[in-house]
Amino acid sequence: MLEQALKHLQYAMILRDCAAQSRDPAARQLFTTVASLHEMRGRALIGRLRARAPAAPRPAERRPWRFGRSAPR
C-alpha cells in the first residue's frame, strides 16, 4: 500500500514537471489536473496507512523549571 502511495506521488511530480514544460495552456491544465488527482490518491493512501499504524507513545510531560527559593534542593 505504501508503494502505491509513493507511485501516485511520483506520478504527480512527473506530471507537474510536464505541466511546467508545456506551452499549450490546455495541455498544462490537463497535466495539472491529473497531477492533483494522483497527489490526492497518494495522500489518501498515506492517511489510511497512518490510521492503521499503532499510535506512538507520547513523551512524558516535563514540569516547568522553578527558580529562586521554591526550587528543590
TrEMBL record:
Taxonomic superkingdom: Bacteria
Region (Disordered): 51-73
Source organism: Methylobacterium soli
Protein name in UniProt: DUF892 family protein
